[in-house]
Q: What sequence folds into this?
């Protein structure tokens, strides 16, 4: 298995782990606090904003650990740059990811049209962001394995 | 996706050039080893620029390194 494939598998696992833990934490907090309409927006807004730095820091730490373990185990140096194949695969994965998120965004808007609670809209947005990221990683993994 | 219509004989050319490794070729043409692996498996058609760089490394014309096999299902009218 190539370095890129292993890196994508680690990304996949770290995304699932970080998002699941964070989402469970947010849902627990949501049930603990009684929110009115204005506070609901503030709650979900801050929940999504906090997720961004948390997931970036956690992923950096996980990737550094993976890089160290991989170098020790395989004695293979990490590629220091991304070449044309890496860039092409990344572009295709980003495209898939955007389509999935777009679908989630439409579903989130539909939830508002159907008079569902604002929290439902935020949960759908959160979930579609998660699924979009997974779709991007899986696309990369597939393209590295099957070719472009 | 999948098998490319452009095939190559990079593997045999590497072998005939002092058994050059994939990593050595990758460093000479400025890509990662994974890209050389993908090309040798016909899983990736390189850009024209990369194709020329590979041909220059082997000191051969482009056509001697890469060949194009048109899809027989496509009928040209």
A:
């Amino acid at each position: 298995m190539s370095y890129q494939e292993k890196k994508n598998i680690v990304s996949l696992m770290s995304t699932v782990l970080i998002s699941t833990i964070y989402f469970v934490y947010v849902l627990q907090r949501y049930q603990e606090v009684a929110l009115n309409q204005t506070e609901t927006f503030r709650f979900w807004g801050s929940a999504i904003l906090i997720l961004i730095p948390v997931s970036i820091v956690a992923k950096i730490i996980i990737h550094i650990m993976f890089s160290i373990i991989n170098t020790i185990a395989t004695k293979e140096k990490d590629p220091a740059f991304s070449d044309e194949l890496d860039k092409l695969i990344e572009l295709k994965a980003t495209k898939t990811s955007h389509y999935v998120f777009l679908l989630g965004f439409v579903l989130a808007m539909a939830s508002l049209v159907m008079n569902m609670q604002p929290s439902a809209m935020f949960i759908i947005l959160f979930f579609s962001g998660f699924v979009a990221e997974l779709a991007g990683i899986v696309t990369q993994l597939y393209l590295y394995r099957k070719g472009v | 996706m999948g098998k490319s219509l452009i095939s190559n004989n990079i593997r045999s050319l590497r072998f005939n050039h002092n058994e050059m490794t994939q990593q050595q070729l990758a460093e000479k043409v400025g890509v990662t080893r994974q890209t050389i692996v993908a090309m040798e498996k016909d899983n990736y058609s390189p850009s024209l620029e990369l194709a020329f760089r590979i041909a220059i490394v082997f000191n051969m014309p482009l056509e001697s390194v890469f060949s194009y096999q048109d899809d027989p299902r496509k009928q040209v009218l």
Q: What stands out?
A: Chain A touches chain B at residues 2-4, 79, 81-86, 143-144, 146-148 (CB under 8 Å). The first helix of chain A runs from residue 3 to 32. The mean pLDDT of chain A is 90. Residues 45 and 122 of chain A are 8 Å apart (CA to CA).
